[in-house]
Amino acid sequence: MLTCGIVGLPLSGKTTLFSLLTGYTPPEGKPSAIAMADVPDVRVDILSAMYQPRKTVYGQIQITDLAGLSEGTGKSAAFLNSIRPAQALIHVIRAFEGDYPHPLGSIDPLRDFNIVNHELLLADMALVETRLDRIASASKVKGPDKEQLPVLEKCLNHLLEEKPMSQLQLTEEERQLLQGLVFFTDKPQLLVVNLAEEDLGTNPPWLSALKTVSSEKGWRILTLSAKIEMEISQLNPEEQTVFMAELNISEPGTALVAREAYSLLGLIAFFTVGTDEVRAWALKHGDTAVEAARTIHSDLARGFIRADVMSYEDLNQLGSEIAVKEKGLAHLVGKDYVVKDGDIVHIRFNV
User: Fold this and answer.
1) 13: which DSSP letter?
2) What's the CATH number of domain 286-349, 3.10.20.30, 3.30.360.10, 3.40.50.300, 3.30.1490.20?
3) 304-311 vs 331-333, strand pairing mode
């Protein structure tokens, strides 16, 4: 399963964010934890109001709270090994004083951002250099190694300019030659700046600098206060609305983080609807109708015949499935149909 890993320095609030997203608080002292997080989606809310189902289920993503980066022998290796399986990263950066001291003695978000990303950059450089050394030490360079050599040199020169691998332009053939090499800086990244309550809605100079740097690297950035988010999560819905209005917050920041993580993983949402259940399903962008069927249940993919498809936008605008069909906007598609974000899908199958 695709997973989004939460990284950061110790005491940055990453485990708090993990708990807010997943509703699971890992035992103290546990270096990492894995849980599922709901992805809030107003479309699910609207479909649920339309069908009044017995059950409403949001899309979900797997979130991993990864080991924090600490100084000391072996600590960096443990940090990097924990990141390796994640397909995308949520990088939590501390920007609040709090009741416990920063492990580096002061609050400096830009410094903390650079520390973590420099570690990822160095790891990628080491990977490329090790591979280049192995090729150089071989008695003869031929076959795949000979073809891989110029691509590796291209990667190293790019990394030496302190640019993430995600920004390196590679042809499909070059990417094939690098298969099997996991680059940390090639993973999409979302920066989450954990602010003090009083800094919500402000734009201090360091935040502007951080936004500039993250933009240069092609990464998104969000701000929230994990302390405030925790307080919001403990209120009932009516109290949440009042509290967020007082803080001029339209919705919890964790909802934005969850949706952004969904996007980072290259996922879209399709829906199944009915009076029994309205559900959002996560599907990889570019996947077909038969993959959507497999996401629901392997039997549906095995016995796939056709899929009835209509768009959420058409259903929401016209108000009923009958109206959508009368307008000719519902389609019967085969297994090679590429599912779009917001498609409402009903699988016809026989097993």
Assistant:
1) S
2) 3.10.20.30
3) antiparallel
pLDDT digits (tens, 9 = 90+) for 215-253: 998 899 999 999 999 999 999 988 998 998 888 888 889
Q: What is the mean pLDDT of residues 294-306?
A: 96
- Give me the helices (H) in the chain, please: 14-22, 42-51, 75-83, 109-137, 143-160, 172-177, 205-216, 226-233, 237-246, 253-264, 289-296, 298-302, 312-318, 321-326
What average pLDDT does the structure give for the chain? 92
The string over 166-185, giving b where at least 16 C-beta atoms fall within 10 Å of a residue's C-beta and e elsewhere, is: eebebeeebeebbeebebbb
State the Rg of the chain over Cα. Answer: 23
Using an 8 Å Cβ cutoff, are 345 and 283 in contact?
Answer: no
Selection from 258, 197, 193 nearest residue 230 by Cα: 197
Is 93 strand, coil or helix?
A: strand
Alpha helices in 92-236 (DSSP H): 109-137, 143-160, 172-177, 205-216, 226-233
Helix axes 109-137, 75-83, angle to 10 degrees: 90
**Amino acid sitting at position 126:** A
CATH tag for 120-185 (out of 3.40.640.10, 3.20.20.150, 1.10.150.300, 1.10.10.60):
1.10.150.300
Could you give the CA distance from residue 18 to residue 317 in angstroms, rounded to a whole number?
Answer: 36
